Every structure is written in structure tokens, then in C-alpha cells.
Amino acid sequence: MTWIKKHLLDIESLTADEIVTVLDTAKAFKAVGERAIKKVPALRGKTVVNLFIEPSTRTRISFELAAQRLTADIVNFSADASSFKKGETLKDTARNLEALNADFIIIRHSASGAPHFLSRVVNASIINAGDGAHEHPTQALLDAFTIREHKGKIAGLNVTILGDILYSRVARSNIWALTKLGAKVTLCGPSTLVPKTFEQMGCRVTHNVDEAIRDADIIHLLRIQHERQRKTMFPSIGEYTTLFGLNKARLAKTKPDALIMHPGPINRGVEIDSEIADCSRSLILEQVTNGLAVRMAVLFLLNGGKGPQEVSGS
Amino acid sequence: MPEANVILDANAIGRALTRIAHEIAERNENSAEVVLVGIPTGGVPIAERLGKILSEIWKQSVPIGSLDVSMHRDDLDQRAAPKIHPTEIPFDVNGKTVVLVDDVLFSGRTIRAALDALNDFGRPKKIQLAVLIDRGHRDLPIKADFVGKNVPTAANEKIIVRENEVTLERK
User: Fold this and answer.
1) Residue A285 C-beta-side C-alpha neighbours within 13 Å
2) What is the CATH number of the domain that holds B142?
3) CB B81 to CB A3 under 8 A?
4) Nearest by CB to B105, which of A28, A46, A314?
5) What is the signed CA dihedral for A141, A142, A144, A149, rounded to 10 degrees?
6) What's the CA gap between A96 and A81, in Å, rounded?
7) Residue A243: exposed, middle, or buried by beta-carbon count in 10 A (0-12, 13-18, 19+)?
8) Taking the mean position of all CA atoms in its chain, how far away is CA A211?
9) Which of A67, A275, B93, B148 could covalently link to B122 via disulfide, CB atoms 3.0 to 4.6 Å apart?
């Protein structure tokens, strides 16, 4: 399949074929990361800007390293130290970055749709690194990559996403990606954070955690997004842990080959027992490794997505 | 239907590969130093066939790898991203004579990319190039050490290499 998209704004607008193309390409870049020389010249001379208007460490560093391993130049632009504090609009900031000939702008923003807006006002390729509670496409792609690597497939698997779904862009992007690839997705958490309306996205919704994880091949845990919610969504952290936290007793009642994922940062002792986070069934650190490969693949594909395939000589 | 002329049939391909293998053996006295690296997709099956013939000549197995050059191409921002094929080099290239193998030599840009890509795996003692077909029209100063057949072509013609047949087609 030929990749023709210029931006990666969300998973919703990708086809299953496009998702698989990213995963296949990422496989090759994961192999690059395992070599003595972990760098290739694919994006030599390109300029990438990390425009992080909302704080992030792991995603920013992952994109930074991905760009560097492709030989691009990357600059970081964070909200604290920037002109946002001086009242500049997002559009003006982006136009300034473009005036510096940025080829890619990777944006994280607390407002849903900010990347889509940018893609209409600048010429650079835009990559959504998380916009509000909307989407976090590279997270879903790295999760799909990790699942496929361990289970050999995605179609037909039972994937349970457990936690704060309502405020989670990771959940939304994962739901799109997994359902497009044929997985059966179950959502579980407090009823205030997992409303039945998610059934419209093709998922099963339940508020009983034991039932939700019993037949799961993948248990995907999400952090409670304290920063995005009011205190009225559930009584207390302690009660959440008691009712929905993944502990040894609950894990014992799952399929023995069920694997555990978490996009990080994890809150040990809240949504996941500390021991479980470090056990052999946890893929949490592999997700980080795979995130780098997936982000390299995304940059590589978008770099070419500017015109039709040309057949050039051997 | 495009007009197609058969340039090599199955027997002729077999003879050409046998001759190339003997030339590789003649050029490289120390057989233990030689490894073959095919360039996907067309070069990989040819490297495997050459490896088989060479191991019969030398009475020892010849290491074979594959080297994808997509990430080292010089036209990545001018075209849709190429499909990346597996790179498998299950041996140390340092101090070895690497024979790069491709099916068709045309502009030379793939080989330039391959030289760069190979560099990431180490410092071979020597690099040589074997191709089944050299069709001319070079953009770069690159020349094959071992050639199955030189085929004069026009720019609008296409060489199609299959397992048992090589044809020249007009677009």
C-alpha cells in the first residue's frame, strides 16, 4: 500500500491498511534500534519541532529520539518557556515555526482539535501527540504494534481497557485502532468514567471488573487523569483501587496468557499493584521501546506523503 | 499488452549465474572472507542462487544476508515512502569481502544507498558488486564487478526479472 497522508491527526481517519503499513514500517525501525549504529539518514536536513503546549516527558523524549535517529534536527518548544505566556496565539506560534522552515510540527495541546486546526494554517506536516481528551494516535499505534508482536495478530483478540475512559485520548485512539483491526474491545471502569455512549464506537461497556478481564487477551490499564476531571467522578482513590485496581487476586482469575499494558505514567498501588507492574506479563517497558520505533515509522511515512509514487531507477 | 522480448531464458540465467559464481571464486582466493548480501527484493533470490553455486565450488557454505536500502535512498522526500523489506545480516561484515547482489543495475542510486547502508554494519575489507543485468543509463560513477548480461535499453523500456525468465518490455 502506498502511504499518501501528509499529517497524522487521528486514528479515526486512518484505514486498517494504513494502520498496518505503520506497524510494518515500525518493525523495520525497531530493528534499526537494535543495531550498534542506531541511526539512519532518512530525514537528513529536515527540521522537526516539538510543540508541547501541555507538559509531557515520555512522549516528547520519544519523538525527540525518533527524529534524531532519522538524522533530522529537532527543537523543543514548551509552554512554560514560550511566548504563549506573552499572549501569542497558537496560529502565530506555528507560523513563526514555519518561517524557520520547520518540516514537521509535533503538537501536544489541551484543546481537542488543535492539531487539525494547525494542519489548515501551516504547510508543515502535523503530528498529533495528544489533543485534550480526543486522540493520541502514536500511542494507539505503539499499543497495536506491541499487541501484534506478542500475539501475532490483533483480529479476534479480546482487549479490555480498564480505567478512566471518558477523559482518555489514549482510550479513544486505541478503540479506533483496535476495532478497525478486528479486535473485540471491552471498556470497564466507574460508570461515571465509562458511559454507555461508548458502545456507539463498537465496544462492549461493563462496570464489573472481574467480568471485564475474565476472557481478556490484553488488559490495558489507564491512569486516572486527575488533571482533567472534577472530584465528583468517583468517591476516592482508595475506593477506585478496591473496585477497579488490578491486583494479584484479580489477575489470578484471568487467562494465564493475558498480557498487561499501560501507557504510563503508572500510579503504583492505584490502578495497578506494584508487583504486577514489574511481572513478566507486563509489557509496559516494551511499549516505551516500541513507541520509539513507531514514531520513527510515522516520521518516515509522512516525509514521503507529499506526492505520487515515482518509479526511480535501480 | 506491452511488447515483451525474452532476454534470458531459464537455461541462460543458470549459465550466467554459474559464470558469475566462478568469477567471484576466481577473484577472491580466500573463500572464508566472502559473504553475499542481496538487495531486496530482486537481489535476494539471486544472492541465494549464487551462494548455492559458490558453496559447491568452495565445498563450504557461504554466508548470505539481505540489505534493505529504503532508509538510505536519496529521493525520500520526493516520493511516497517506499515499503521497507527485512534487513538480515547474521554475520560480522568487518574484515570481510562483501559481494552486493542485485538483479538489475540501472541508475546506480540503489547501489550508492546500499554502500551507505552497509557502512552502518561495519567496515568490510572490500565490497564488490554482482548483477544479473546491466541495462546502462548510470546517474552515478558506479560499475559492477560481475555482470550476467549487458542489455542496451531505452529509458522507456523496463527489465522484468523472474525466476526462469528475464524480459524487456516497452512501457
Assistant:
1) 6
2) 3.40.50.2020
3) yes
4) A314
5) 140
6) 16
7) middle
8) 26
9) B93
CB contacts, 8 Å: A314 with chain B: 42, 102-107, 109-110
Could you tell me the three cell numbers for A245?
485496581
What's the rounded Cα separation, in Å, for the pair A32 and A221? 29
CATH fold label, A16-136+290-304: Rossmann fold (3.40.50)
Which residue is it, cell 534499526? A32
Q: Which segments of chain A have a pLDDT < 70?
A: 81-83, 227-232, 305-314
- Indicate yes or no: CB of B121 within 8 angstroms of CB of A32: no
Nearest by CB to A3, which of B80, B102, B117?
Answer: B80
Flag if A309 and B72 touch (Cβ within 8 Å): no
Q: Name the pairing type of β-strands B34-38 and B64-66.
A: parallel
Q: Give the tens place of pLDDT for each residue, A168-184.
A: 999 999 999 999 999 99
Domain that residue B128 falls in: 11-71+89-153
Residue B5 belongs to some domain of the structure: no
Are B137 and A46 inside 8 Å of each other by CB?
Answer: no
Q: What gap in Å lies between CA A260 and CA A246, rounded to an integer?
A: 10
**Secondary structure of A175-195 in the HEC alphabet?**
HHHHHHCCCEEEEECCCCCCC
Answer yes or no: do B109 and A4 touch at CB < 8 A: no
Q: What total number of domains does chain B contain?
A: 1
- The CA distances from residue A59 to A38, A279, A290, B38, B42, in Å, are 19, 24, 12, 37, 38
Architecture of domain A137-288: 3-Layer(aba) Sandwich (3.40)
Residues 6+ apart with CB under 8 A from B159: B7, B104, B133, B135, B151, B153, B166, B167, B168, B169
Looking at residue A311, its pLDDT comes to: 39
Contacts of B104 in chain A (CB under 8 A): 314
Show residues of chain A in contact with B137, CB under 8 Å. 313
Question: Where are chain A's structural domains?
Answer: 16-136+290-304, 137-288
Closest-CA residue of chain A to B74: A42
What pLDDT, on a 0 to 100 scale, did the predictor assign at position A77? 84
pLDDT digits (tens, 9 = 90+) for B40-84: 999 999 999 999 999 999 999 999 999 999 999 999 988 899 999
How far is the C-alpha of A128 from the C-alpha of A109, rounded, in Å?
Answer: 9
